[in-house]
Amino acid sequence: MPAFTLDDPVDRGLPRPGNLLRTAADSIPPSGLVLLAIFSVQLGAGFAKQLFTALPPSAVVFLRIAMGALIIGAVARPRLKGMAWRDWAVGIGFGVTLALMNLTFYEALARLPMGVAVAIEFLGPLGVAVAASRRRLDLVWVGLAGTGVVLLAPWGESASASWVGIAFALAAGACWAAYILLSAAAGSRFPGTTGLAFAMVVSAVVVAPVGVVSGGADLLQPELLMIGLGVGLLSSVIPYSLELNALRRMPKHVFGILMSLEPAAAALIGVLVLSEVLHVQQWVAVVCIVAASLGTTRAVRRR
């Protein structure tokens, strides 16, 4: 008897749930999908940071990715039979990049305020946007977003900043740049979210050794498992699925510029969830980044 999936009709006269979900996602502009993904992943990061009092960052990463892999793997069920070697290479590379990006970012998050960590990490996608830009107007928005990043970063607070955290954030930014390119490649080679499911499983395998060793028996606590489930949904399943859908419908460099909202969303979630109060200079940076994102969204609509 075949296993039930989201694409199986419950009733022959009713629309398939999988088709309904895809239709709903397709009805949202790609820029809207990116914004939803941004706030989802930052809310998940805020809840994850609260777990650092009970688990080390690497254990929280494993909990998040493992939960996400279980959920999306059960829904998407990637088929490995018949895959070309290039499909394997893209899927494995995507999964390893996800693992490294999350490990380095969570280590930075443990040492820096949330808005600062994301601002420094944003140098990765900003570099992708600059490298891929072909229009002068795009460079204006990139420059405005870059100004916001500089204002958010703790260059004037070096005495209290964790340079180890900054190094982790820079490494996460490099992984983020690779993630943008590999997720687009996975979206073109794998149908639906099967590429994401495959990459999540690879990522969980990569993170498992360090996560299990650092977390130990604490990973089996029911309350931590439930929080990890929520973090996995908010930080992995929901945003990655939305981003893959958006990347199929928009240029990679526009996606990179729109991600300039990440520091703004992180700063806002840091205030609401973690009580990390922003200074006036940081609020100015948020305005710069929001203006750059709105400018690119209008440019995409005109085109």
From TrEMBL:
What is the official name of this protein in its record?
EamA family transporter
Question: Can you say where in the cell this protein is located?
Answer: Cell membrane
Which lineage is the organism of this entry classified under, starting from the top rank?
Answer: Bacteria, Bacillati, Actinomycetota, Actinomycetes, Streptosporangiales
Note the topology in the membrane: Multi-pass membrane protein
Report if keyword Transmembrane helix is assigned.
yes
Organism source for this protein? Nonomuraea ferruginea
The transmembrane residues are 58-76, 88-106, 112-132, 139-156, 162-182, 194-212, 224-242, 254-274, 280-300
Q: Which UniProt keywords apply?
A: Cell membrane, Membrane, Transmembrane, Transmembrane helix
Q: Which Pfam families match?
A: EamA
Instruction: List the SUPFAM superfamilies.
Output: Multidrug resistance efflux transporter EmrE (SSF103481)
Q: Specify whether GTP-binding is a keyword of the entry.
A: no
Family label: Belongs to the EamA transporter family.
Q: Mind telling me which InterPro entries this protein's record contains?
A: Diverse_Substrate_Transporter (IPR051258), EamA_dom (IPR000620), EmrE-like (IPR037185)
Domain EamA, residue spans: 164-296
